[in-house]
């Protein structure tokens, strides 16, 4: 079962989240493997997308925001796009676009940052966005302070967190064909009641990024190995890392409350896409074949429109069937 475990360190300005995606992650992989257009992901891309998926769940669970969190890499290498979307209820989906083939041992930069112009974007899209309202988006490069290519996706995100939220964050991410998992440790701002279980804030050292407690816990977190993150359960990991700390855990989010695969595609959304394609383009496709077929890259659902369907879309754009969510 896929799980989210939140915890904090009693009396310290530090909190954490541990995410383990099992069934939700395998669902993403098996749908891709069953997609005859694309086929299964090569291992390095599978692992990158898994790390991104775990990271997106960590970030969604770490913010109070009523909307979708979308994590994207716009690559300049063979991987053109990798995208993960996590809804507030932890319904999630992910996909990636690969042109050509990948070496079995391809690094992050060989996949998405060949010319050092790859980008990572984090978008927060409010649930009930008003017309004209823009979603919030932050974009970071895939290189470090000295323009050196970053080879760990967790380093890219740590950079982002420091820049956007001004919060020290330590991330450990790992994925294989069974599990996508991540650990996030974050220093809390000292103002207000940052640490709910905490007593009075200790000192103002925190304001200048010199918090010793955070540093100690972050160092412990960084010793977590890929194998441990992929194979051990949450209690074992937290005990192994923080046995000497006073960890306060919350009830895990799992099952219906936890991360689960969910696609938000629908026939109506695809209809709108056809509408923006234009009647001419649709007609030229229909001259060559009986149906226009549109497949969802996230879930593999195939939508078919014959000449009558297409005519209805273009004649009555305001009378599309109402949104019904995913149809599968
Ligand atoms: Zn879909």
Describe what this molecule looks like in 3D.
The chain is 32% helix and 26% strand. With 328 residues, it is of the alpha+beta class. Strands 1, 2, 8, 9, 10 and 11 form a six-stranded antiparallel sheet that branches. Helix 9 runs antiparallel to helix 10 (307-315). The chain is elongated and about 70 Å long.
Structural class: alpha+beta
Number of helices: 10
Mean pLDDT score: 89
Uncertain runs:
192-205, 323-328
- Note the overall shape: elongated
What's the arrangement of secondary structure elements?
Layout lengths: L2 E7 L4 E8 L1 H11 L9 H20 L4 E8 L4 E8 L4 E8 L9 H5 L6 E8 L9 E6 L11 H12 L4 E7 L4 E8 L24 H11 L3 H6 L2 H9 L4 E3 L3 E2 L5 E2 L5 H11 L1 H10 L2 E5 L6 E5 H9 L13
Parallel strand pairs: 5-12
Antiparallel strand pairs: 1-2, 1-10, 1-11, 2-9, 3-4, 3-6, 4-5, 6-7, 8-9, 13-14
Helix pairs in contact: 9-10
This protein binds zinc ion (ZN).
Please name the defining characteristics of this protein.
328 residues; Hsp33 domain; CBS domain Like; 6-stranded mixed beta sheet; binds zinc ion
Sum this structure up briefly.
With 328 residues, this protein is an alpha+beta fold.
């Amino acid at each position: 079962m896929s799980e989210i475990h939140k915890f904090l360190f009693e009396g310290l300005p530090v909190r954490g989240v541990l995410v383990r995606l099992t069934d939700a992650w395998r669902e993403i992989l098996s749908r891709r493997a069953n997609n005859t257009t694309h086929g299964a992901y090569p291992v390095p891309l599978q692992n990158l997308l898994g790390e991104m998926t775990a990271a997106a769940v960590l970030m969604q669970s770490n913010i109070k925001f009523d909307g979708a969190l979308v994590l994207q890499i716009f690559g300049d290498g063979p991987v053109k796009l990798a995208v993960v979307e996590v809804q507030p209820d932890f319904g999630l989906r992910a996909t990636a676009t690969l042109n050509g083939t990948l070496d079995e041992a391809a690094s992050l930069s060989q996949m998405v940052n060949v010319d050092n112009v790859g980008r990572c974007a984090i978008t927060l899209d409010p649930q009930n966005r008003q017309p004209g309202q823009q979603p919030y988006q932050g974009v970071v490069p895939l290189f470090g302070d000295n323009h050196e290519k970053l080879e760990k996706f967790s380093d890219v995100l740590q950079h982002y967190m420091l820049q956007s939220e001004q919060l020290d964050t330590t991330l450990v991410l790992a994925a294989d064909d069974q599990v996508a998992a991540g650990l996030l440790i974050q220093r809390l701002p000292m103002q207000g009641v940052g640490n709910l279980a905490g007593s009075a804030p200790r000192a103002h050292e925190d304001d200048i990024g010199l918090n010793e407690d955070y540093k100690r816990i972050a160092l412990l977190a960084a010793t977590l190995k890929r194998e441990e993150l992929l194979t051990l359960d949450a209690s074992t990991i937290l005990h192994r890392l923080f046995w000497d700390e006073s960890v306060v855990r919350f009830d895990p989010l799992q099952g219906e409350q936890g991360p689960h695969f969910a696609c938000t595609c629908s026939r109506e959304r695809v209809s709108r896409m056809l509408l923006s394609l234009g009647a001419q383009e649709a007609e030229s496709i229909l001259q060559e074949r009986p149906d226009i077929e549109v497949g969802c890259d996230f879930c593999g659902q195939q939508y078919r429109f014959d000449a009558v369907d297409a005519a209805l879309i273009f004649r009555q754009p305001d009378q599309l069937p109402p949104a019904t969510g995913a149809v599968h």
